[in-house]
């Protein structure tokens, strides 16, 4: 019988009583790895009840003890690094190196969460009025929840619950139903790290399970990462139910190439950033904007992309793996066809790529379009595949205008040798994460992941100080202690006296 992924409720890994299960497949072979349950109402209620009960003791646990759980957790994640990466590769198809990167970027957040005491420090001012002091504390919210996408099954769950839990909350995670084995392994190691019963729950499923979280009257905050339509739905529904919501959504990231940039570096960086992870990164470069004479580099870009090839997770020569599902492949191929139909020049077409030994994989070869214009669907829609669009402009100002007109604002980068041009770009560009000669500028966890515009709905972003703000309330106390010299009569004004 096919293995079934357990739910993680009240400190136990339990088999769901659900009647609805979905197969989880290896995208390189279509082998069914396991089945994922769609948690029942009573299982979700049990998860909430356990998280609520655990909150009452967890929030009273000294902050340094909470930090120590994170220290042990990061050590365990490192110890099991390769084993987790192998699980991750099996269900996402990512190359082993890329799977390790997915986990590593999550471990960095756990390391950061271990620094929670200093991040939760409040502020103090003595003598705000005569012999009156004001000081503030940050306190956890209660039960928080997170809903995560398929494309980073280690990193994105680790963006969320380590920060929330270190801050004193308890957390219900609803991972992607397409790759639930990695987050399950992450939860097992969290227990091994000493996380008390109930602080983390993992429920599986889809919309119905997400709706339970969004409508629950006592779940205080929702963290979401995924596509634009779902991200908008989460933000609208969560806030309509009076919750805090941070909702990270889709993207279309541009790389601006100036003619004075180091050409070979540009070419290498474009190839890795556009087709790496089969283009299934929210920070992937999907549009390269060639400015002025950089237009002439088209053919070298084509040669570099042509050398990239998809392959199995353990093929050391593979540049990237398959896309997540046959449906994803079909969607990508349809968008490629639309690009052709709308008049873009297809320089490389990856639709018929073959990977020896893996006839059933969801392979898409590197695909390159030139002559792309902003009206085309390949420019407007997030393709989420190994497809790069080349757009040509005459000046940096035109490039900036193009990007600022995009509804997305997750990431962008610019390659140049000119500090003045880079300064102009970083200052004027309406995108939340900017790389200067860096193709995928994902900030390390002591900063925050700061997507803008249609790529993010909310105000406090993931990890860093902003995550601490998102997962806590500030309580500000104004205090006076009377002594024999205190002179105070009735005060009928609002002033402190
Ligand atoms: P998705 O939106 O299909 O799914 C994300 C999560 O939402 C999953 O857990 C899924 O079960 C749930 N979900 C799906 N449909 C739902 C519905 N109708 N109602 C409620 N919940 C629903 O996204 P995906 O395909 O798993 O991930 C890829 C997307 O995620 C891309 O658009 C990518 O750009 C985006 N992404 C964004 C960031 C970021 O930081 N901005 C990071 C990674 C991925």
UniProtKB/TrEMBL annotation:
In the UniProt record, does the keyword Protein biosynthesis occur? no
Q: Which GO terms describe its molecular function?
A: methylmalonate-semialdehyde dehydrogenase (acylating, NAD) activity
Under InterPro entries, the record lists: Ald_DH/histidinol_DH, Ald_DH_C, Ald_DH_CS_CYS, Ald_DH_N, Aldehyde_DH_dom, MeMal-semiAld_DH
**Oxidoreductase is among the record's keywords:** yes
Checking PROSITE patterns in the record gives: ALDEHYDE_DEHYDR_CYS
Entry's PANTHER family? MALONATE-SEMIALDEHYDE DEHYDROGENASE, METHYLMALONATE-SEMIALDEHYDE DEHYDROGENASE [ACYLATING], MITOCHONDRIAL
Record family assignment: Belongs to the aldehyde dehydrogenase family.
- This chain belongs to the protein called methylmalonate-semialdehyde dehydrogenase (CoA acylating)
Organism, as annotated? Oceanospirillum multiglobuliferum
């Amino acid at each position: 019988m096919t293995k079934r992924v357990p739910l993680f409720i009240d400190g136990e890994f339990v088999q769901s009583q659900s009647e609805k299960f979905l197969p989880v497949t290896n995208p390189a072979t279509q082998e069914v790895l396991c089945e994922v349950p769609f948690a029942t109402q009573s299982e979700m209620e049990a998860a909430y009840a356990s998280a609520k009960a655990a909150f009452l003791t967890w929030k009273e646990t000294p902050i340094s003890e909470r930090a120590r759980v994170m220290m042990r957790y990061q050590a365990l994640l490192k110890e099991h690094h390769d084993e987790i990466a192998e699980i991750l590769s099996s269900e996402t198809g990512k190359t082993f190196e890329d799977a390790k990167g997915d986990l590593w970027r999550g471990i960095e957040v756990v390391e950061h969460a271990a620094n929670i005491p200093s991040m939760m420090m409040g502020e103090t001012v003595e003598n705000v009025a005569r012999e009156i002091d004001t000081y503030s504390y940050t306190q956890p919210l209660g039960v928080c929840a997170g809903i995560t996408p398929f494309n980073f099954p280690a990193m994105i769950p680790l963006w969320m619950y380590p920060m929330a839990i270190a801050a004193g909350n308890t957390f219900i995670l609803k991972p992607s139903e397409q790759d639930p084995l990695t987050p399950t392994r992450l939860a097992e190691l969290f227990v091994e790290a000493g996380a008390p019963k109930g602080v983390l729950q993992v429920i599986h499923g889809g919309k119905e399970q997400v709706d339970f979280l969004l409508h629950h009257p006592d779940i205080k905050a929702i963290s979401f990462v995924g596509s634009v339509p779902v991200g908008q739905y989460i933000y609208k529904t969560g806030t309509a139910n009076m919750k805090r919501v941070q909702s990270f959504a889709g993207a279309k990231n541009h790389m601006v190439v100036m003619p004075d940039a180091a050409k070979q570096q540009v070419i290498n960086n474009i190839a890795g950033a556009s087709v790496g992870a089969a283009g299934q990164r929210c920070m992937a470069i999907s549009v390269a904007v060639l400015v002025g004479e950089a237009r002439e580099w088209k053919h070298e870009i084509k040669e570099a992309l042509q050398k990239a090839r998809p392959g199995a997770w353990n093929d050391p020569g593979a540049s990237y793996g398959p896309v997540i599902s046959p449906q994803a492949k079909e969607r990508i191929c349809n968008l490629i066809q639309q690009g052709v139909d709308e008049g873009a020049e297809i320089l490389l077409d990856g639709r018929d790529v073959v990977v020896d030994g893996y006839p059933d994989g969801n392979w898409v070869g590197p695909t390159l379009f030139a002559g792309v214009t902003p009206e085309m669907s390949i420019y407007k829609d997030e393709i989420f595949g190994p497809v790069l669009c080349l757009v040509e402009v005459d000046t940096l100002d035109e490039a900036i205008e193009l990007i600022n007109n995009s509804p997305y604002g997750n990431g962008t980068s610019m390659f140049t040798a000119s500090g003045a041009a880079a300064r102009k770009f970083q200052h004027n560009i309406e995108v939340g994460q900017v790389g200067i000669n860096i193709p995928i500028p994902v900030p390390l966890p002591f900063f925050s992941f700061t997507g803008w515009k249609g790529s993010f709905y909310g105000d406090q972003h993931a990890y860093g100080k902003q995550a601490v703000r998102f997962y806590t309330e500030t309580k500000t106390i104004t205090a006076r202690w009377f002594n024999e010299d205190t002179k105070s009569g009735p005060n009928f004004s609002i002033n402190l006296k």
